[in-house]
Write a structure and sequence with these properties.
There is one protein chain. 60% of the residues lie in helices and 7% in strands. The chain is an alpha/beta fold and 626 residues long. It folds into two domains: 6-251, Rossmann fold (3-Layer(aba) Sandwich), CATH 3.40.50; 319-619, no CATH class. The chain has a seven-stranded mixed beta sheet with strand order 4-3-2-1-5-6-7, with helices on both faces.
Length: 626
């Protein structure tokens, strides 16, 4: 049974390092109000879900409010301190600390306020460092990027790149950004203004608290609103209501999709089904039952038709907490996707086979009456019963496939499993899948639950204080994914190509046999003598062989073998290019992890595009009795 996510919401922090003493009281008050509004809304949502059908068992555990702050002096620490002082009953408040450098090097940043030119609260170097260490001791998760203060050849300011990288990390791992900002341009790369514009460009909403004016916060969710605010024009919206609406939109699961039965079989399939479960409820209650041999016919057919038996071994389970989290989610969804795919594919193989048998049995029944030497009554009765049995089995097979949604679930669970696997890869380099990429794969009403569930599981991912993996290890793991995908597509291309050739050959052979039968029948018509029985047999064969040929053609059409061949050939070539790009990265360079992240994102985006194409291709392959 798949694991449920924990209700969680992530607040990222960006802001000025130098905050005037006069601003501290109202800034702290506004930050506290923001966090309290979020905590209260989480509790309210938890209570609401308990009273809503389908949603009462969506989440597990205690709601979690996660604050992500690099703990730089000023805004970062103000928000972190306020969060740690907050004690909302029923909500777990956690602190995540991403750092632009390894902690020993990051500590060099904390040298006190110096001459205090901006009117800050005076801090000595020891007080500055002590304040940082105190907050860091409360962190539930710590991430050390591989930036450096040292000058790097070819890089104008390596430290600024590191600050930019950590700011973008905060944006990638936040549901809303709390920006304490004076509205002025940044002094350099990675400054507050740059991170604000980056957040808006990537679709992450902002709550802007002015760093020097005691005014109401401003809600910003697009570039137009940001431009209007920076021009000094008023924005007519209640920031608190916008914040509440935003968290409800993120946390609340989508409503169940409306299913509209088409045709008599759809109505028959659902006539005794009291209600249609929400896809989320169905997924969380799924169990892989007994694997019946009848649902392995497609695998058996492709194994022998493809003439390739690759040695396959399951992937190794990661040892790190975050990798294990995503691996577990992937294996659960993958197991269900594979089972439903096996049932659906086997069901259409059986439907095609039984349809061919029905036509052949019907032809045999009619032919028996023309054979004079046989007592055809018991034979025709048996054939008629078998024909009826085939029709009943077709009906039951199709109704079962529609009723249990084997086709829909095989695609949906495969999409979900692959999203989990892509995120497992990106988590190695502290990245995450862009929501835009996820939306492209789940852009229909039926698939909205996948989009929501992936976002919910990402928000509830565990935090870790484990040391950062060396870049060589990260590169190796990404390379393993590439090798696995390249091997998969090469195998799929070979199997699909071999099966396609076999089905085409069988279709050609049966067609030639039909020609032979027709020639024989023509010859019998011109030969002297009465050959009714022989003519009947030949006429029967002229029906049987085309039926078999049509069955192979139909099977080949359902499997889309030619398209799979082309798709896998193209994907293997693209992945090889990505592999070469990965190998060109200098792993010893400062912020090499950022380059690894970009390559991992490019690889997973490419794989998602392939997955999206596959989903669109097979989404229309509905089971039909005809």
């Amino acid at each position: 049974m798949p694991d449920r996510p924990q209700m969680a919401f992530r607040v990222g922090v960006t802001g000025a390092r130098r905050l005037p003493v006069a601003s501290i009281p109202f800034l702290r008050k506004q930050v506290r109000t923001v966090l309290e509004v979020l905590a209260v809304e989480l509790l309210q949502l938890e209570r609401d879900f308990g009273a809503v059908e389908h949603f009462e068992s969506v989440y597990r555990g205690v709601p979690r409010l996660q604050v992500t702050s690099p703990l730089a002096r000023g805004a970062d620490r103000l928000v972190a301190q306020t969060a740690m002082e907050l004690k909302p009953g029923g909500v777990l408040v956690e602190l995540t600390v991403p750092m632009p450098f390894p902690v020993n090097e990051y500590e060099q940043d904390f040298t006190g306020t110096g001459d205090n030119p901006a009117g800050e609260v005076p801090l000595s170097a020891d007080e500055d460092l002590s304040e940082f260490k105190e907050l860091l001791s409360h962190a539930a998760g710590v991430i050390e990027l591989d930036g450096t203060h040292a000058k790097v050849a070819g890089i104008h300011d390596s430290a600024s790149l590191a600050y930019e990288a950590v700011g973008r990390y905060v944006v990638r791992h936040s549901d809303v950004i709390l920006a304490i900002w004076d509205g002025k341009p940044s002094n350099g790369r990675g400054g507050t203004a740059e991170i604000v514009f980056h957040a808006v460009a990537t679709g992450v909403s902002l709550l802007w608290i002015h760093a020097t004016r005691d005014t109401a916060p401003i809600w910003i969710d697009d570039r137009n609103t940001l431009d209007v605010v920076l021009e000094g024009l008023a924005v007519e919206s209640d920031p608190w209501e916008m914040l509440r609406t935003h968290i409800r939109k993120q946390i609340a699961p989508p409503l169940p999709p409306q299913r509209h039965p088409h045709g008599m079989l759809d109505k028959l399939a659902f006539i005794f089904k009291s209600k249609q479960l929400h896809p989320l409820s169905s997924y969380f209650n799924e169990k892989v039952g007994r694997r019946w041999p009848i649902w392995r016919i497609h695998a058996w057919l492709m194994k022998h038709a493809g003439r390739l038996r690759p040695a396959w071994s399951p992937p190794d389970e990661p040892v790190d907490v975050i990798g294990k989290y995503w691996f577990t989610l992937y294996t659960q969804a993958d197991s269900l996707a594979s089972e439903y795919a096996a049932r659906y594919r086997s069901s259409y193989v059986w439907t095609i086979t039984l349809s061919a048998c029905t036509l052949i049995l019907g032809t045999l029944t009619g032919s028996m009456h023309q054979i004079r030497r046989l007592d055809h009554r018991p034979i025709t009765q048996s054939l008629s019963i078998l024909e009826l049995l085939c029709l009943v089995l077709i009906l039951l097979n199709v109704v079962a496939a529609i009723r249990n949604e084997w086709h829909e679930k095989s695609i949906e669970y495969r999409l979900l499993a692959e999203l989990f696997r892509k995120q497992q890869t990106l988590a190695i380099v502290d990245w995450s899948l862009p929501l835009k990429s996820v939306h492209q794969c789940t852009d229909t009403e039926r698939l909205l639950w996948i989009q929501w569930l992936f976002a919910a599981t990402e928000r509830s991912a565990p935090l870790s204080k484990s040391p950062r993996l060396p870049n060589a290890e990260r590169s190796y793991r990404i390379d393993c994914l590439l090798e696995e995908q390249i091997s998969y597509h090469e195998t799929r291309r070979t199997v699909s190509h071999n099966a396609l050739q076999l089905f085409e050959s069988l279709g050609t052979v049966t067609f030639l046999l039909v020609i032979v039968c027709v020639i024989v029948k023509v010859l019998l018509e011109f030969l002297k003598g009465d050959h009714p029985d022989t003519t009947t047999v030949v006429e029967l064969l002229t029906v049987v062989f085309p039926t078999i040929s049509a069955a192979f053609i139909t099977l080949r059409g359902y499997a889309e073998l030619q398209l799979l061949v082309e798709q896998s050939r193209q994907m293997a070539a693209e992945l090889l290019l990505r592999k070469e790009a990965l190998q060109r990265i200098n792993l010893d360079r400062s912020l090499a992890s950022i380059e690894l992240g970009k390559q991992a994102l490019a690889i997973t985006t490419l794989m998602l595009q392939d997955l999206e194409g596959w989903g669109r291709l097979f989404r229309g392959k509905l089971m039909e009795a005809g």
